[in-house]
Specification:
Number of helices: 9
Strand content: 5-15%
Shape: elongated
Radius of gyration: 20 Å
CATH superfamily of the largest domain: Alpha-helical ferredoxin
Structural class: alpha+beta
Largest sheet: 5 strands, mixed
Helix content: 25-40%
Number of strands: 7
CATH topology of the largest domain: Fumarate Reductase Iron-sulfur Protein, Chain B, domain 2
Number of domains: 2
Distance between the termini: 65 Å
Length: about 220
């Protein structure tokens, strides 16, 4: 099996089943300096996310094939080889990724289902890597941040919701092109595109109007 890792070609004699297995073989038998992230090995922690043939994948549960090309995530600072800067906590702090003011509202089973899928994000940064807007505007709020914001806005136990909506207006939801790349690469199948649309609707309902184009003309 022949694969390429960051523009270097490797011939793998063994038969690993996953991308992570192939990387491990290379490090142990061919290139001991190859650096990559690995922890849970079961698709839970998200730290092994890489780009395989141009698409963001988790190395631990992606099948390796002859001719595969493996690269680090895009739109992230590369520390070394496939190791990139982890998710920055200050981004999540910006939208207050926690309950600010808790109410005594009773949560139903349906309410739990509404927020559960939005709580499944493993912060792998695959959505950020695939985002074309983030590529040209590093101040753009990463897609996974919208998911966290909506999770708490939809939580009936949260009283303070408007501050989160305010935090995602500039370099935020209206800069998104709704291309759907984030949906395609999310390992948890979180509906990120729909979440952003929902946040746009909630923003308008809260009095936050979409920005007007610079060349917009009125008659």
């Amino acid at each position: 099996m022949n694969i390429e890792v960051i523009e270097k070609k490797y011939n793998i004699i063994a038969k690993p089943t996953t991308v992570l297995g192939a990387l491990k073989y290379i490090k142990q038998n061919i290139n001991q300096s190859l650096t990559y992230n690995s922890a849970c090995k079961s698709g839970v922690c998200g730290c092994c996310a890489v780009v395989v043939n141009g698409i963001e994948k988790l190395a631990c549960n992606t099948t390796i094939k002859d001719g595969d090309k493996i690269e680090p995530l895009a739109n992230k600072r590369i520390y070394r080889d496939l190791v990139v800067q982890p998710t920055q906590k200050n981004i999540l702090k910006k939208i207050k990724s926690y309950l600010i003011k808790k109410s005594d509202e009773t949560i139903t089973t349906q309410d739990e289902k509404t927020i559960d899928i939005l709580s499944n994000c493993i912060l792998c940064s695959s959505c950020q890597s695939s985002c074309p807007v983030y590529t040209i505007n590093p101040n753009f709020i990463a897609p996974f941040v919208y998911v966290r914001a909506l999770r708490y806005i939809n939580d009936k136990k949260e009283i303070e919701k408007n501050s989160r909506l305010e935090a995602i207006q500039n370099d935020g939801i209206y800069d998104c092109t709704l291309c759907g790349n984030c949906d395609m690469v999310c390992p948890e199948d979180i509906p990120i595109k729909d979440s952003i649309n929902s946040l746009r609707n909630k923003s308008v309902q809260a009095g936050h109007m979409p920005p007007m184009p610079d060349n917009f003309m009125t008659f």
